[in-house]
Amino acid sequence: MEVADYIYLDHNATTPVDPRVLDAMLPYFTEVFGNAASIDHEAGHMAMRAVETAREQCARIIGAVEPKEIVFTSGATESDNIALLGVAERYADKGDHIVTCVTEHKAVLDCCQRLEQLGKRVTYLPVDQYGLIDLDQLRNALTPQTILISIMFANNEIGTIAPVKEIGAIAREHGVLFHTDAAQAVGHVPVEVDEMNIDLLSFSAHKTYGPKGIGGLYVRRRNPRVKVAPVIYGGGHELGLRSGTLNVPGIVGMGKAFEIARQQMKTDAKKYREWIQMMYEQLCEQLGDVALNGHPTQRLPHNLNVSIKGIESKSLVVQLKNIAISTGSACTSATVEPSHVIKALGFGEDRAHNAIRIGVGRYNQQEQLDYAVRGIVTAARRLQQLWT
Ligand SMILES: *Cc1c(COP(=O)(O)O)cnc(C)c1O
Fold it and tell me: In degrees to the nearest 10, what's the CA dihedral of 295, 300, 301, 306?
């Protein structure tokens, strides 16, 4: 093989751990192994201080005023669960209605389904051809019983970035809480919880060169003070919202990953945008009928999602032995159902069956991307010949 043995282009599913992140984590497995809650002694204190430094780093990257507003969890899935189930329970007196959107991650959609089983009401807003909700439809969906709007910051399949600031303003104006799943956005595009009126925000380390199994939930403490019922009960860790001994190495790694992202985000994004544009143009030139899924400009810099006409993506990706791209999100590629996100764009089933997702990242090189485009084009042409 000419460029590298294996070309990983699925950075919207997960990213490798940055070696600087790993270095920061390692001492916390062996040398500084204390329980961050056991502050009767220095071992615990050292762990606790490392956790608090990471909490500051997490707060900083999303513009949170107080580090206390960060609650550590096992990842964005758990954060979404706490946000939706916890707010629904805590604000049951105020109302029973939640507004979300059809292209959300399953972590949000499955929580909404559960809430419906529990007797709550959920409105699933549709999206336009770019994956954007209509703000007037959002306004019209709100009722006096609405307690929460949950709209993802950036879509994990098509990369579309929601008009978060406008949604936040609408939520604030109507006295409704606003939660956003920002697993794909934090560390990749600017996120400002105050400016955007975000009340709850889910994030994860492993989409931003941190380790898997660690994430967090931002919970606003002022204007308004958001209250959330716990989903996990136990020792009262994390202000009682998420009991369980803290994953100190994971938390340290996430803090470091976000610190690095904060410094590199702008330059990385510029490079990724150029790469994505180049790959898209080459695919269009060489294959003709290639449609971009998602918004042309309001999108994640490192994501490309296209449908190649007549080419089923399942058949395409199995031909790419040494190139990792995906047919949809990691969570749905275990099933045969085509992506609920691409289907929601309204172009029909075929468009969903033909969708491939490419996610570039920190350790890719230009030559790898050229190689991947050649590989995709060759495989697509081979399939076209087979089928005609
Ligand atoms: C990856 C992802 C999740 C799940 O995050 P985990 O930390 O793996 O649980 C949730 N939402 C979105 C948008 C994601 O991209």
Answer: -50
Cα 75 to ligand 1 centroid, rounded to whole Å: 7
SS3 call for 366: helix
**End position of a domain, from candidates 218, 243, 259:** 259
Residue nearest to atom 7 of ligand 1 (CA): 75
Distance CA 79, CA 65 (A): 19
Q: Any idea what the CATH number is for the domain that residue 303 is in?
A: 3.90.1150.10
Closest Cα to atom 9 of ligand 1:
77
Distance 118 CA to ligand 1 centre (A): 24
71: helix, strand or coil: strand
pLDDT tens digit sequence for 340-372: 999 999 999 999 999 999 999 999 999 999 999
Any catalytic annotation for residue 331? yes
- Give residues (CB < 6 A) around ligand 1: 75-77, 105, 107, 152, 156, 181, 183-184, 204, 207, 215
Q: Which phi and psi (to 5°) does residue 278 adopt?
A: -65, -45
Q: Based on the fold, state whether residues 288 and 243 are members of the same structural domain.
A: no
State the 10-residue block means of pLDDT for the chain, 388 residues long: 78 98 98 94 96 98 98 98 98 98 98 98 98 98 98 98 98 98 98 98 98 98 97 94 97 98 98 98 96 98 97 94 83 69 96 97 97 97 84
